[in-house]
Amino acid sequence: MRPFNSRVNRPTPAERVLSILTAAHSMTVVSDGLDPVEVHRLDGTAAMGHIHLHEPSEAGSLQSGPRIPVRLEFTDIAPTPVRDRTRARVTVTGLLAAPYSTDTAESTCMEFGQAVFEDHRGRAFVTLDTLQETDPDPIATSEAAMLTHLLDDHGELVPLLLRLVQPQPEKGVTRVLPVELDRYGVTLRLEYPGTHRDVRLPFAKPVDRLDQAGPQIHALLAAARRASHRNQLLT
Fold first, then answer.
1. Which of 55, 97, 122, 129 has a CA 20 to 30 Å removed from the CA of 150?
2. What integer pLDDT is reported at residue 127 of this predicted model?
3. In 132-158, which positions are buried (b, 16+ CB within 10 angstroms) versus exposed (e)?
4. 102 in Cβ contact with 47 (< 8 Å)
5. CATH number of the domain to which 29 belongs
6. Rounded CA gap, 46 and 55, in Å?
């Protein structure tokens, strides 16, 4: 668990991995010598609900006999129509006692190897101990709905948030969209002709319950309205 403090304004790689695994509704299962298996769960059940991760030392977690190396691949896609919607990729490696099958309703036991998190900032390796010590983000499974609501129902307010960006962005922004939302704040994507960049707007303090997220977003919008300078970036 990471203590909250004023300097923390974005999730750690472990928090991002846990959020992606918690909210994922699809994954690709890759085993040596077998065709990749695409797993899609659109009934509200996260894909990881069908894989149970075990410590490598838990010998009893898998049946005796040969173990099959397996790789679970997840792609984190922005729910809003931003340029370059791939936000991150997560790869979880481990061992199975038998080939993965989509025909069973039971959770498949997997001996955990490691998790690799990759985004535009680089690559990080995450252990199972770190994942188990990490608190789930209360916004993770609601992020897509909340960002879509913000854009569809209050899209005219999003550019106001540029007033909170310091230093002020360069002129020439053609579009501003929310691209990410987590317990620490919201990320905006500023699109320019031919390029884009992301800016982070942290909450006054991280949220620990889902019902705290809405008021924090409203607080950012209120702060933007109070900003003394006018936003003249969008033309």
1. 122
2. 94
3. eebeebbbbbebbebbeebbeeeeebb
4. no
5. 2.30.110
6. 21
Rounded Cα gap, residues 46 and 74, in angstroms: 12
Same domain, 103 and 169: no
Domain span including residue 107: 13-132
- Give the total number of structural domains in the chain: 2
Entry pTM: 0.87
Dist. CA 113–CA 93, nearest whole Å: 5
Q: How far is CA 191 from the centre of its chain?
A: 21
Tally Cβ neighbours within 10 Å of residue 233: 18
Which residues neighbour 183 within 8 Å (Cβ) at sequence distance 6 or greater? 11, 137, 138, 139, 203, 206, 207, 208, 213
At residue 222, the 3 state secondary structure works out as helix
Mean pLDDT of the chain: 87
| CB burial of residue 186 (10 Å; 0-12, 13-18, 19+) | buried
Q: pLDDT, tens digit, for every residue of 64-93?
A: 667 889 999 999 999 999 999 999 999 999
